[in-house]
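Dear colleague,

As promised, here are the two records you asked about, laid out in our usual form so they can be pasted straight into your sheet.

NAME FIELD: protein one
SEQUENCE, THEN STRUCTURE:
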Amino acid sequence: MNYARCVCNQPYLHAPDQPIQEEPLFGLTVGKVYKVISDPTAERHGMTRIIDESFGEPGSEDGYLYPSDYFEPFLPDEHLCRTSLTIYLDEYVKGVLHAEAVASNKSVSALMRDWVEERLDLPYSV
C-alpha cells in the first residue's frame, strides 16, 4: 500500500491519570489521502507510518505512526470519472510547458499526465 485514505482520526493513546481527549488528532483528516512509508516493524505491531499534515515541521521527516485500522488502501477505481485539476502558472512556466509539449508532439495536458505518471509511485497508469 503506497497511499491510504484516513477513516478515523480519534485519539488512540492517553495517560491513565489524564482525561480522554475528545478532539480529533491534529495531523489526520478523515477522507484525505496520505502517503504511506513502508515500515515492516511498525506493521508487525498493527501500526502504519504516514506522512501527515504536520510534514515539514521539525521531527516529522520520517512520518508518524498511527493504528493501521485508521486507514484503508487507496487504489484507483476504473469506474470513477476522471477529474480535472486547474493550476495557475506565470507566463514563463506556461511558455516553457508549451514549448516542451510541442517538442514532444503532445498537448500540454498529455505532457503533464505523463510527468505525473513518471514521478508518482502509482499502482498502474490511470
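NAME FIELD: protein two
SEQUENCE, THEN STRUCTURE:
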Amino acid sequence: MPPPEEVPNPQLPIVQRLRIRYAKRGRLRFTSHRDFARAFERAVRRAGVPIAFSSGYSPHPKISYAGASPTGASSEAEYLEIAVTRRCEPARVRDALDAALPDGLDLLEIVVGDPERGSLADRLDASEWQIRLPGVEPAEAAAAVDAFLAAREVEVERMTKKGVRTFDCRAAVASLSATSDADPDQPCAILVMVVRHATPAVRPDDVLAGLRAIAGLVPPVWPHANRAAQGPLDERTGTVGDPFVLDRDASR
C-alpha cells in the first residue's frame, strides 16, 4: 500500500495574530495597494518578524489586508493582520517594522488580536474622510452638502472592469458636513464625511461626483482626500469607533 500523500512544504503553526494600524502620508499616498504589499513583505523580512507561511508548493506570508484606501488618498487608519510563529512583543514589532518601511508608510499601533471577539475585517463598517477643496468657498460647499443630504438618492457613474456602472452614492453616506480652513485669504472648504463600507463600495470621489451632479460643485483644484478613521459605525451618531478596543480589553 503506497504511503499517504504528504502536504508539500509544511509550515510552523500560528501562535499569535498581530493587528496593525498604519498611515499613508505625503507622496506615499500614491502607492497602490499592490506596491504597499510588496514593501510591507520586504519590511517583514528586514525586521526579522517570525511570519507564518501557508503550506503547499508556493508558500505565501500570512498577511490579511482590510479596507485599503484608494490610490492617491492619504490615510491615518489603514489596517492589516499578520500571523506569527512565536509570541512577540507588539511594541518591538512596531518599532522594527516602522524602521524597515519607507518614510510616509508609518506604523502607528500594533495589538494582539483576539479571534474569539471577531475578525478585524468584520469591525471595519465605515470610514471617516476629510476632503480639502482648495478654491471652494465654504458657503458654496455647505449649500451643496445640504442639497446632497436632502436627496433620497444620488446616482453617479464609475468605470469598472465590466464597463460603466451607475449606482446610488447617497445611501452609503452616514454623515456629511462642510467646514473651512482658517486662512481667510485662500478659501478652502473641507468636507467631513462618514461613508459606510457598502456594496458597491462608495469612495470619496463618488461622493464628490454626487455633489457635482446634484449641486454643480466643481473644485478648481484637484481635491485631497484623507481617511481619518476606520472602524465600527455608530448609526445613532454617525461616528466611527476604534476597531482595536476589544483587543485591548482582552489583553488587560
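A couple of things worth noting about protein two: The domain at 126-231 is CATH 3.30.70 (Alpha-Beta Plaits). The first strand starts at residue 16 and ends at 24.

Best,
R.
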